[in-house]
Amino acid sequence: MIHDRSFLLLVGGILAFLAVASLIGWVLARRAADAASRATVENLNARIRAWWVMVAVLAGALALGWTATILLFGLLSFFALREFLSLTPTKPADHWPLLAAFYVFLPAQYVLIGWDWYGLFSVLIPVYAYLLLPILGVVRGDTEDYVLRMARIQWGVMLAVYCISHAPALLLLPIPGYEGRTPLLLVYLIVVVQLSDVMQYVFGKLFGRTKVAPRVSPSKTVEGLAGGVAAAVAIGTALYGLTPFTPLQAMGLSAVIAIMGFFGGLVLSAAKRSMGVKDWGTAIEGHGGVLDRLDSVCFAAPVFFHLTRYWFTP
Amino acid sequence: MIGPVLLGLTRFLVGGHPRWIGSRPTMRQRIYFANHGSHLDTIVLWFALPDALRATTHPVAARDYWGTGRLRRHIGVDVLNSILIDRSGQGPKEDVLRPLHDALDLGRSLIIFPEGTRRTERLPGPFKAGLYNLAAAHRDVELIPVYLENLSRAFPKGALIPAPIACTARFGSPIGLRPDEDRSAFLERARQAVVDLAA
């Protein structure tokens, strides 16, 4: 993988991209005149600094191997689920389902992925957690808001554990002729989905006029969406060499990734709004919580995983 | 050994980071008083304080919980530096508060939970008189209200292990005992100061 020419180009590209971003941020910080633009630039620079850290962490985990990568995503799921359920007003009567979600289903999902037991990890949460969580929730006999409470826990586990776990599950796809290179598929997903997010932000800040969904997310604009998705598809197509796809297939799949990612951000913005907050947490400086950065991955990863599995594995 | 492990576990599972809203962490002698929803309250509030302050601050803890069992007693007394008090109601009231007056006389700070017992509600219930008695006898000690958010969700009454729900400790502005304030007015004002931090 390390000797892969397109992989080296990608690493170089990411580092150059971050270096240019840091340089632009530095210039903007010197130029910012009023308080409002200083705040925007300060947030931009905090985001760029956090990006350096996130890239380093992911690269480190990938270099250590697939166990470390699965463990990293398990931890990300843990923090994302904690953010989600902390903002959801659970009650003391939800204690058993919460313990099961955090200490049983979350580790079990990642262990099953580590064992490559596709038949069970793909149904563990949609079938077993789906049924067991409300069973545990009924033990204390508290029926106030019971449906709402159980639905929130099920939603949290689906998004933060099940959906996110499909990103590292890409490592285990047995694609003929692509043996040993599946970490590149994970890198590909992350690069396309995050680049789409970043370019939506950049195009939105530069050219954003028309809001896509003003009542859900004031920062998402049609111009940002179009520019971001176009940039992500362009890069996703250019990076076809990393993947088992032809350029045309890479174009189609990166479009799916970018569009699902956009809707992930939109849906979780609506969820935040309904809970009365702006960010899921404060874990990543400038970005908010872990779930603020992974909202698009939640929606893109399972679909990308299943399309790839369906068409590219025997 | 147990101290750092306990700190690591607390940060990993529930966070428990401080939010200094109305006051700053300083070496001034203080009584921190907070709502009480969980046995984790003592641990979270303790670790929310900077290292330097922990050395001179003592949580006030119930002997019937933190005094029983070797591990729990070790955590309560040796790690958290607690002063254990009897809340069985036997014996004269002055004797219960005696160790607290002594600690304040020595210039130490205290962490107390004036509701006396854990509650499941978000907002604190009525405060017991102990806070007033301490405040009246030590008028130069700063009284800092603290709201502990989500603790009763992370580790509710009757639970064996905590769930990872993010918790925070919010520190408010000092309230002082006014010269002619009576007990119930002061206790209600103190309770309200904690309630205001919950918003």
TrEMBL record, chain A:
<feature type="transmembrane region" description="Helical">
    <location>
        <begin position="185"/>
        <end position="203"/>
    </location>
</feature>
<feature type="transmembrane region" description="Helical">
    <location>
        <begin position="224"/>
        <end position="242"/>
    </location>
</feature>
<feature type="transmembrane region" description="Helical">
    <location>
        <begin position="49"/>
        <end position="81"/>
    </location>
</feature>
<feature type="transmembrane region" description="Helical">
    <location>
        <begin position="7"/>
        <end position="29"/>
    </location>
</feature>
<keyword id="KW-0808">Transferase</keyword>
<dbReference type="GO" id="GO:0016779">
    <property type="term" value="F:nucleotidyltransferase activity"/>
</dbReference>
<dbReference type="GO" id="GO:0005886">
    <property type="term" value="C:plasma membrane"/>
</dbReference>
<keyword id="KW-1133">Transmembrane helix</keyword>
<keyword id="KW-0548">Nucleotidyltransferase</keyword>
<feature type="transmembrane region" description="Helical">
    <location>
        <begin position="151"/>
        <end position="173"/>
    </location>
</feature>
<dbReference type="Pfam" id="PF01148">
    <property type="entry name" value="CTP_transf_1"/>
</dbReference>
<feature type="transmembrane region" description="Helical">
    <location>
        <begin position="248"/>
        <end position="268"/>
    </location>
</feature>
<keyword id="KW-0812">Transmembrane</keyword>
<feature type="transmembrane region" description="Helical">
    <location>
        <begin position="93"/>
        <end position="112"/>
    </location>
</feature>
<dbReference type="GO" id="GO:0009273">
    <property type="term" value="P:peptidoglycan-based cell wall biogenesis"/>
</dbReference>
<feature type="transmembrane region" description="Helical">
    <location>
        <begin position="118"/>
        <end position="139"/>
    </location>
</feature>
<protein>
    <submittedName>
        <fullName>Phosphatidate cytidylyltransferase</fullName>
    </submittedName>
</protein>
<keyword id="KW-0472">Membrane</keyword>
Automatic annotation (TrEMBL), chain B:
<comment type="pathway">
    <text>Lipid metabolism.</text>
</comment>
<dbReference type="GO" id="GO:0003841">
    <property type="term" value="F:1-acylglycerol-3-phosphate O-acyltransferase activity"/>
</dbReference>
<dbReference type="GO" id="GO:0006654">
    <property type="term" value="P:phosphatidic acid biosynthetic process"/>
</dbReference>
<keyword id="KW-0808">Transferase</keyword>
<protein>
    <submittedName>
        <fullName>1-acyl-sn-glycerol-3-phosphate acyltransferase</fullName>
    </submittedName>
</protein>
<keyword id="KW-0012">Acyltransferase</keyword>
<feature type="domain" description="Phospholipid/glycerol acyltransferase">
    <location>
        <begin position="30"/>
        <end position="151"/>
    </location>
</feature>
<dbReference type="InterPro" id="IPR002123">
    <property type="entry name" value="Plipid/glycerol_acylTrfase"/>
</dbReference>
<dbReference type="Pfam" id="PF01553">
    <property type="entry name" value="Acyltransferase"/>
</dbReference>
